Amino acid sequence: MRHGAPVLTGRLLGRTDSPATEAGIAACVAQAEGLEVSAVVSSDLVRASACAAALGGAATIDPRWRELDFGEWDGLAAAEIDAAPLGRFWDDPDANPPPGGERWSSLTARVAAAVAAVTVPTLVVTHGGAMRAALAGLCGFGQRELWAFDLPYASVLALKVWPGPTPTAQIAGLW
């Protein structure tokens, strides 16, 4: 599940820890109704962890589910960033990471490690970038295909995962 709408929107929020709005938290609670899970795991950023806490029960905090670190761009709106390097980043975020930021391959590696730690049906409250990184690693989607997925705040992406040396997954739902 992607966290609820943050107070700050329209910005590259990686490590910038903007809290979720009350409406954003309520949207996550509504989306989680009826889900049958054995555990809840959350990014350590408050916009995700507050949503997980509102679901009731104890959530395990795992920083590997954090959003991509946008470095010097973190917290900025796209209009505040030079269009040329930003465009190169969107075209190939591994070859063109934000200045002082994280490479796409680093995000996908840490999310892969977090996915490998999931052993029971689990609701993970995380971020759009981490969700796309999971899709890249588990389903083999390329950068262009990843951006074809609309992952609005409080959306749920259900995956059936087959663990193993090369874990794979099937998309079971997106709402």
From TrEMBL:
Domain of life of the organism encoding this protein: Bacteria
GO molecular function per UniProt: phosphatase activity
InterPro entries: His_Pase_superF_clade-1 (IPR013078), His_PPase_superfam (IPR029033), PGM_Phosphatase (IPR050275)
Cellular component terms per the entry's GO annotation: cytoplasm
UniProt protein name: Histidine phosphatase family protein
Source organism of the structure: Sphingomonas ginsenosidivorax
